[in-house]
Amino acid sequence: GHDRGRNVHLWGLVVDRFAAMVIMPLDVIRTRLVSQDPGRGYRNAGQGLLLIYRQEGVRGLYRGIGPAMLQIAPLTGGQFMFYNLFGSVAKRVHGLPTEAQLPPGELFVCGGLAGLCTKLLVYPLDLAKKRLQIQGFAGSRQTFGEHFVCRHMFHCLAQVGRREGMRGLYKGLLPSLLKAGFTSAFYFTIYDTLLVLFNSQSNV
């Protein structure tokens, strides 16, 4: 049981990393399309990906891959850890046994809190990823003031911390927290509800 759970978790990390590698160019072009000036930059995602490849090579399509990869393990493991923690607390509060199933409303709350806590932990990495994705794109962002320049993830985090303080490492946190909280809440609620449903049907 324990070994099987560990193997499932490890394979999950492998799959998540592979998926991150595949979709990384789409993440880069999304960040650039959102941050470019009107009338500058790329006309659409397809043209943008082609231009990035021609002008910056494969490296340009994978800017920010370091912090993106580093986020995966704490995001995956952290969500389940916090979800189980909050679920255990809720069961103790209601005097329920460990194997009992919480109602959907409480699953939703536990899942949401798990998403919030995990996002708080990894958010500076997410910020570094987005800052790295706009490197080499200064010409299309003239109205955004001084262009932030950094060489790699550690340099990026150090620059943000030195110039903007700890607060700078958490710029844009609120919408990211809301997204992470609701995504995690729906995920765990649907997952646990369907799991109980399938188990009950298999035992019939």
UniProtKB/TrEMBL annotation:
<dbReference type="InterPro" id="IPR002067">
    <property type="entry name" value="MCP"/>
</dbReference>
<protein>
    <submittedName>
        <fullName>Putative thiamine pyrophosphate carrier protein 1</fullName>
    </submittedName>
</protein>
<keyword id="KW-0677">Repeat</keyword>
<dbReference type="GO" id="GO:0016020">
    <property type="term" value="C:membrane"/>
</dbReference>
<dbReference type="GO" id="GO:0055085">
    <property type="term" value="P:transmembrane transport"/>
</dbReference>
<dbReference type="InterPro" id="IPR018108">
    <property type="entry name" value="MCP_transmembrane"/>
</dbReference>
<dbReference type="InterPro" id="IPR023395">
    <property type="entry name" value="MCP_dom_sf"/>
</dbReference>
<keyword id="KW-0472">Membrane</keyword>
<keyword id="KW-0813">Transport</keyword>
<dbReference type="Pfam" id="PF00153">
    <property type="entry name" value="Mito_carr"/>
</dbReference>
<feature type="repeat" description="Solcar">
    <location>
        <begin position="102"/>
        <end position="197"/>
    </location>
</feature>
<feature type="repeat" description="Solcar">
    <location>
        <begin position="3"/>
        <end position="89"/>
    </location>
</feature>
<keyword id="KW-0812">Transmembrane</keyword>
<comment type="similarity">
    <text>Belongs to the mitochondrial carrier (TC 2.A.29) family.</text>
</comment>
